[in-house]
Prior knowledge:
Helices cover about 15% and strands about 65% of the residues. The chain has about 80 residues and is mostly beta strands. Strands 1, 2, 3, 4 and 5 form a 5-stranded antiparallel beta sheet that branches. The chain is elongated.
Amino acid sequence: EKAVAQARANYGIQRIKFGRTEIEVTGRRARMHVVTVIFYGPKGDGRYSLIWDIRWVKSEGSWRIRDVDPPQPGIEW
Length: 77
C-alpha cells in the first residue's frame, strides 16, 4: 500500500484500467496476458499502457503466481 501511495504522489496516477485479458489453462499451469492503461496527471488525461505476461501454477487447490515477465510498454486492443 505504501508503494502505491508513493507512486500516486510521484506520478499523479488517477486510475488504472485493465484492458484485453487472455488466459490459457493447461492442466495445473496457466498463462495470463493482460493490458493495463494507467491514467495520470492532474486531470487524469495522460495515459501510459503496459502489457503483462504472468504464469500461474495450481498448488493445493489454489492458483499462485509462478513467474512474471517485466511489463512491456505498448498498446493492444
